[in-house]
Amino acid sequence: MLASGSDENYAKFKAENTEVLGITAATMFAQKAFADYFKISYALLGGGRDITAVHKMLKSYDLLDEPRLTAKRAYIIIDKDGVIRYYDIRPSPNEKDLLPTETLLNEVKKINKGS
User: In degrees, to the nearest 5, what angle opens at C-alpha 83 toward C-alphas 106 and 61?
Assistant: First the structure.
């Protein structure tokens, strides 16, 4: 959600019967510091002490920036049946390349309506 505006938008997604998860290639310490600093209330997933598990998962979705061993900025919406319905890898993690919250909410609404 930080990627789509701010953590304050989390309630908008919850109102659409949608769960938000963040996935990071960071260590547990860095992930906790990030979540604390930005006051993130949604779940952040990582590999814990086994960061290679996260790297493997990110690589399977073409989301691992291998030279830097970081996650690429991406938005993925998975429906209730586990089917990826929206997939967008952004050119960079810079603010100018982030999607607006409303764009993601509109995609969620379309998916929830079955269109």
Answer: 95
